[in-house]
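COURSE: Structural Biology Practicum
ASSIGNMENT: Worksheet 4, Part C
STUDENT ID: 0417
INSTRUCTIONS: Below are two proteins. For each, the amino acid sequence is given first, followed by its structure token string. Answer the questions at the end about the second protein only.

PROTEIN I
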Amino acid sequence: MKVKLGFCITSVLVLSTLPVHAGTANITESEYGEKWPLTIVEGILSCAPVGSLGIVTFTANGKTYAVNGTARSRAKKNGWREIDEIWKANPSIPGTKINMGPILDRGLSLCK
């Protein structure tokens, strides 16, 4: 009986630390056209609510990338990569990146 109880308590503790995804969406470069800010042409955008915030991630080719600050603060712990690895440079303004705003907004809308 003690073994089963210990297993149940451990399972609940582990599961309670995992983000619960409120929503996911497959997004593609063709949807956003020139506003697409990534070097990968498609992936799955996800949001997991944390209080009044959301953890926005993008998954493609078996890798998950932290999109917003809330996700970035948890990236190392969860084994997520930095979005900078696939964030496209802005050819119009050297040294800057394409605006991530539309992707971030869509991701946060998945938490609602």
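PROTEIN II
(use this one for the questions)
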Amino acid sequence: MSTYLSQDNVPSPLLYAQHCQEKLTRFQTILEATGYDAIIIGSGHSKVQFQDDMPYPFFANPYFREWVPLGKRAGSFIQISSTSTKPRLFLLIIEDIWHTPPQNLPDGYGDALEVFEYSHVDELQKQLLREDQTIALLNETNDLGVSADHLNPQTVLNQIDFQRRSKTAYEQDCIRTANQIAAPAHRAAEQAFRSGASELEIAAAYLAACNCSENEMPYGIIAGVNEHAAVLHHHNLSKDTREPRSFLIDAGVACNGYAADITRTYAYDTGSDFAAMIEQLDRAQQELVALGSIGACPLELHVQSQFKIAQLLIAFNILQLSAEQAVDKGIINSFYPHGLGHHLGCNVHDKGSQLANPQGDQIPASKTHPNLRASAAMVANQVYTVEPGVYFIPALLDKLRVSDQTNSINWAELERWITYGGIRIEDNIILHSDNSLENMTRAAFLLDQDRIG
């Protein structure tokens, strides 16, 4: 596990304290730039289902989780002021005999904060609101009754999102730890697939291996067997068992609110052509990982990934034209309909990846690839995913079949691949300030392999 882990399998209090001080400096710069005296961030409140008394699972908002690893602690607030030496954390304390006690900070983390307790919003308002201060409140609801102009001001959100592109050492370690927890769970899912388990049983094996509940996942587990591997977000997991051919799992784990986001694909027959295609995509994925560097353009990296997917399809006799033609004519989009990757952090698809500056100016979308999540040049200490894929999606293939490019496809060969669904391979990467790349996912799988011998 990480060098900085405490006994509770989370980054150490010292690393967390360094994180809070670095974030405090960043946020005080934001306060100076935006003219506010303080930023108050609420964790949010639980919501009850319509016409029912059953609450939805609670998740604190990412702006709060960036500061405090209390993703399940509703009704909490953190204050960052222009003059404070520590962030101030306010925890709601109420008598409740019906539910388990609220989530607490990991041991030692409280030393980095000034921690207060409150039981009613009136107490909170007296503590947080002053007539001589201008306050920005970031929260889903206006609990404190600030002016509407100061509830989620876009100027502040832009500044925060822009600085989130560069992760502190603590944030990096949270994501590294999440990868280390997720790796053995991915192996358990593969073993369940090879034993003939249903998709739902595979997901259960994953959760058991990482010792997490479904509501602790940073996103819903995607577990597609055979044709379901072609569904990019396959969450409606089947309870039925079927003769296994292929399996795609996209699943993560969260550590202190920071996500791992990992995808692997497996062939049941390890000697099949599909297994060979997985191996070729895996090599291409590692070549794409190696292209990351400070200042690199995500659009250019995505185009490189398109060429590699086209070359793969040509090698397996599916495309009957050059890779350049497949990309230029847009044919490749029918087999690879998403981007190469995204930023990763408190949000699985983290913020700031399309901002040109802290003022919130957006980088113009590419005319050829308008839906890419990341367009800003890569920066030091960025954490991101690299996840090329190749899919055999009937809806997209049907459109291609009746297009003017239909002769570019070897349809007889393609038919036998449709039953496999598709392939995606996704790793989580840190681009360090010395321009070196750390593949947290591959390192986690190697660590798990060493553990099991």
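ANSWER KEY EXCERPT:
Q1: The two ends are 16 Å apart (CA to CA).
Q2: The longest strand covers residues 246-251.
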